[in-house]
Amino acid sequence: MFENFLRRLLAPEPPALPEAEAHLALAALMVRAARTDGLYAAEEVERIDRVLMQDLSIGPFEAARLRAEAEVLEAEAPDTVRFTRALKAATALEDRARLVQALWSVALADGLREAEEDRLMRLVANLLGLSDVENAQARQAAERAMGRE
């Protein structure tokens, strides 16, 4: 289904992604973050949809459609590095901490913080060019935001 997209991601020097594909890559990375602990909870699905609606200014049906496509892409995609590399190329440095905060909000949506999630988020933050401190700040910001909901 996503052969051309995956082929571009697997290229040694992937081209910059068009906006729609960058959104799909972000959604797929959120799905991967949610599935990392082996449980894809309803709270995580709801969080992904909410983040997509808020960040992309889209409605609930479009968010659900994008998430459903991302679920298929995430299952077919070989590794996290290529998603992250594509997102890094498509995202300005100043927006990457916000992206990691959104990923943390998904990973923590089920109320659990697993070692697998920590490892994934550390990898993603590093690949996006963020330090461990910036990753921790993004997690703390996600936790604070979730506490206010």
Detailed description of the structure:
The protein has 149 residues and is mostly helical. The protein has one domain (17-147): Orthogonal Bundle (TerB-like). It is 75% helix and 0% strand. The chain contains eight helices and no strands. The chain has helices at residues 3-10, 19-35, 42-56, 60-76, 80-90, 93-107, 115-127, 132-147. The longest helix is centred in the first third of the chain and has 17 residues, at 19-35.
> In DSSP terms, counting alpha (H) and pi (I) runs of 4 or more, how many helices?
8
CATH-derived topology: TerB-like
How many structural domains in the coordinates? Answer: 1
The average pLDDT score comes to 87
CATH class label: Mainly Alpha
Let me know the CATH homologous superfamily.
Answer: TerB-like
Count the E strands: 0
Query: What CATH architecture would you give?
Result: Orthogonal Bundle
Instruction: From the alpha carbons, calculate the radius of gyration and give it in angstroms.
Output: 14 Å
Distance between the termini: 36 Å
Order of helices and strands: HHHHHHHH
Strand content: under 5%
Low-confidence stretches: none
Short description:
By secondary structure, this protein is mainly α. It contains eight helices and no strands. It has a single domain, classed as TerB-like (Orthogonal Bundle).
Write the layout of secondary structure elements.
Elements: H1 3-10, H2 19-35, H3 42-56, H4 60-76, H5 80-90, H6 93-107, H7 115-127, H8 132-147
